[in-house]
Specification:
By secondary structure, this protein is mainly alpha-helical. The protein is 60% helix and 0% strand. The chain has one domain. The longest helix has 22 residues.
Amino acid sequence: MHGLSRRAFIQFLATAAAAYPLSSLAEKRQNLSENKSTSENLTEPWLTLSVVQEHLFPAEKDSPGASDIQALTYLRNMMMTPDFNKEEVMLIHNGVGWLNDLAKQQYRKQFNLLNSKEKEIILRRIENSRLGSRWLSLLLTYLLEALLTDPVYGGNPGGIGWTWLQHQPGFPTPTEDKKYFKLRKQTHRNLKA
């Protein structure tokens, strides 16, 4: 899949899930709609990150979107893990600043207030810089992880992404006390003893 644009990749995912039973997705989406965090109660940088995620991975009638898979919750959870790369934290936060600065320069508005076409133009401009491209790639990585992760990590609630992709996860799935970063810490303590 090398050389595939992000839009083409997302379209590929959507095509792969074409046989997915639509009523099941609609039912899961309905069950999850009450639990989603809305952009109305978010502050920066989370507000902009949420809007970017929705633009990169929008919900459609037959496929979940960023909010359905709780991509923002997943990203927040990962950023709080003990081994999360500090440079990535800085890049994610700085990217929000660059994006909003560019939106203000070009449209005199914050990114989250732009229409879809304006958002696309700003994201394409960001994509043309080395750091901007890296920032978008990082956000897309965490979006796809949120789609495929075990729900214990905060994304893919109720296995909505697995269901959409018709994926059967491995068993047993981790419990709260068996998250990968907790196991690493326990193993490290056991090695010291």
